[in-house]
Design goal:
The structure is a single chain. The protein is an alpha/beta fold. The chain has 17 helices and 13 strands. The strands form three sheets. A nine-stranded mixed β-sheet has the order 1-2-3-5-4-6-7-10-11, sandwiched between helices. Strands 8-9 form a two-stranded antiparallel sheet. Helix 4 packs across helix 5, helix 8 runs antiparallel to helix 9 and helix 9 packs across helix 12.
Amino acid sequence: MRRPAAAFTNAIVTALWLLLPPGASAAPARGELSLSACRLEHPYGLGSVAARCGRFEVPENPDDPDGRKIELAVAVVPAVSARARPDPLFLLAGGPGQGARDAFVPALGAFAGVRRDRDIVLVDQRGTGGSNPMNCDFPDEAFDSTVDPEKFREMAKDCLDKLPGDPRYYTTSVAVRDLDAVRAALGYERINLYGGSYGTRVAQHYLRRYPGHTRSVILDGVVNPSLALGASMALDAENALRSDLARCSQSKDCGTRYPALAADFDSLRARLAEQPVPVKIPDPVTAEPREFNFTAGHLAMVTRLLIYSDNTTALLPLFIREALIHDNFAPLAAQAEMLQQQLEEALAYGMHNSVVCSEDLPFLDRASLDHDALERSFLGSAMLDGLTALCEVWPRGVVDPDLKEPLDSTLPALLLSGEFDPVTPPAYAAAAAAGFSDHAAFVFRGQGHIQLGLKCAQTLIRHFLDAGTAAGLDAQCVDSVAAAPFFLGFNGGEP
C-alpha cells in the first residue's frame, strides 16, 4: 500500500534513512536521558558521523504524568572543538511528519561550520521517526483528484484504528514541551533553533513558551504563526508554477526551445482530465515493471513536488514537451512514482493529520476563498476537499490558546525564503518577521522551498549564530544566487 502525496503533505522531502547500531542505547528510567556512542549513516553509504544516541521517556498526555509513556529518539552530534560553546543548535524537521534524524543526517554537511564549536541536537518529534511513529497506509488512488471525499473519511477511520497512540497528543503544543524536557535533560541552559517548513512553526512556538531558554531562531521556508495552511496552498503553488514557466519563457534558450510552455501545460492538463494515459515503467526501487493510468491527479502531484526545488523545476519543461508532443509520459510517471515512494518512507501521516486537523483546518475561513481561482489552479480544490473530509473524522488535539497569536520577541531571528516557493512564499516570512525586533530576512532569487542546501544560506546561518544578532549580517552572497538552468534535452540544460 502506498500513501497519497498530494492530499496530505505540506513540504517536499527526500527519501532518508538513519542507521543506528543494534543496542546503541538501552531504554532509560523515566525522565532520564542516557546517551551512548553510535554512528549516523548516510542513506547511500556516502559517509557517516559519530554521535551519541539515546531514548527519553515522556508522558503521552503531558497533563497525566502517571499515564501512558512514550519514548523520544534523540541524537547529539558533538562539536568538533574541545571547547564547545554552551548553546547547541536543535534541528526541527518539516512535513509535518518528518523525523529530525531522518531529515537532517544527509544534510549535516550543511552545518559543518556550525559543528566546529556547537553541538547539533536531533530529536524526532513525537509521532515521527523513532518517537512512537504514527504511521498510516493509504491506497495508490488516494491522491487522485477524482477521489470522493467519503473515501478520505474511510481511510482516516481505518488509520485511526491502527495508530499506536492517542492522536490528540501529537501536536506542536505538546511537542515543544518535549523539546524543553530534552534540553533540560541534556544540561543546556539556552539553545538555538533551526526549523524548516513546518519546523518553523515549532521553533516559533518553542520561543513563545520558553524565551528564557532560547538564544536565537533560524526559520527556513517560513510559516508565520497566524497562518492556517490549506486554504492558499493551491493558489501559492499555482503562482509559483506560473512564475517558473514565465522564467523559462524569458530565457532566450528555454523560450526558444519551449515557445508556448504555459499553454502546453494547460493542454496537457486538459488532455489527461478527459482521458488518462496508460503507462508502463520500472518501479524506481525494485525495477519491476509497473503499469497504471497516468491521470490529471498524477500530473498535479508531480508538478507540485517538482517545483519545490529549482533543480527539479529545471526538468519540468522537458517533461511537459515529451508528454504533449512525443506522447512520452514515462519521465513524468517515473517522477510521480519516485516522489510518492519517497514521501511514503519519510512522513508519518498519522502525526501529520493530527497537526493539520488541529492547527490548520479549524482556523480556515473557506467563505473568504477565491473559489474560482482555486478551481482554475492546477491543484484545484482536491487537496483542500480531501483534508477537510479527513479532518471531519480525525480527533482534534491539544492546541495552546496563543498558538496563532503574533510573536513579539526581542530574540534574534534569521528568516530565509525562496522567490518561487510553492508552499511558504516570501510573504509568509515577511509576516513572521514583524514579530522580531532583531531580525534579518532574505529572499533567494529563483529558488523554491528550503534554502539550507545553498552555500550562501549556510554562511549566513554560521555568521548569524556566531554573532548572536541579525544586526550587521553580511549578505552580499544572496545576490549571487541564481536558479538552475532549464533542461533543453535529456543531456542537460542551458549553457
